[in-house]
């Protein structure tokens, strides 16, 4: 701070990218130091404040590491580029950034279309999200090349990550929608995203799956019950299914005390929404939980499945003994493989390939 400036990163230009700035303590002038339409991470300022080093990328640009001069016009020197020499020779599914406007709020998504998409055919959709307050899923950044981005693109499945107005892209104004009212506006915005996809003739409206863990597990169950006109299948992991059962330090920050907001808490109870769930070939869920989860206690899942059983609703259940809030090692491998098997059955209507079923557990 020799020159009396503070250096920081912020999502000022657009909510899906971080840029680098400095603000003068004397004049209060804010100067953007980064360049282009990239997401900048791992930023370090040189001791003399004349350069910074950072990684940057976007949805279509593999990550680069560069030294950038701090001046009137940034000068970039690339130190390393993760894009290999033969990158452009490969047939890859590259993500695309999308956005919609709902009630004046711009909501982003990142979609990976199937390879060789044929607009005369129908394709299932796999939605991924988290959904928690100020904790978005979508950023305009490089996701890498792996089975997570390429597998379903090669199998003819549309993959899309979506966010709602309270996920951080719309600031405090967007977050205010969740005050005393978790698990409401999130689904409203998610449904708008599915309506947007429905405008494309190649989207199979009857084959829309959704998946998430923790708050994403809660949202998955909400989508497949109250929102099952749009979300047909789901895998819910480690979800909170009654916010009266979750940590008070988190819950009461948004919901206030249960005795002061009984209607708000009642709205979060998935056990009261199972009547909307069908539990048949048109609307089906898989629920997973770790028995040692000390974040979202397994009590949540036990209450939920008890209500579903008493209502005569069928579902899949996978319990992971000794696992915490997230599965590791052999249990993680088993969970991932099981998820693939579920999506092949419900989105594609076939068995998972032998190469997947024959994959060996890690030692």
How would you describe this structure to a colleague?
The protein has 363 residues and is of the alpha/beta class. Helix content is 24%, strand content 27%. The protein contains 9 helices and 15 strands. The strands form 3 sheets. An 8-stranded mixed beta sheet has the order 8-9-11-10-12-13-14-15, sandwiched between helices. Strands 4-5-6-7 form a 4-stranded antiparallel beta sheet, with no helix packed on it. A 3-stranded antiparallel beta sheet has the order 1-2-3, with no helix packed on it. A hairpin with a 5-residue loop joins strand 4 and strand 5. The protein starts with a strand and ends in a 6-residue tail after the last helix.
Give the overall shape, derived from the CA principal axes.
globular
Ends distance = 50 Å
The succession of helices and strands, N to C, reads EEEEEEEEEEHEHHEHEHHEHEHH
Number of helices: 9
Helix content: 10-25%
- Summed over residues and divided by their number, the pLDDT gives a mean of 95
Rg: 22 Å
Q: Spans with pLDDT under 50 lasting ≥5 residues?
A: none
- Give, in spatial order, the strands making up the sheet with the most strands: 8-9-11-10-12-13-14-15
Beta-strand fraction estimate: 25-35%
Number of strands: 15
Largest sheet: 8 strands, mixed
Class from secondary-structure proportions: alpha/beta
Name the descriptors.
363 residues, alpha/beta, eight-stranded mixed β-sheet, four-stranded antiparallel β-sheet, 24% helix, globular
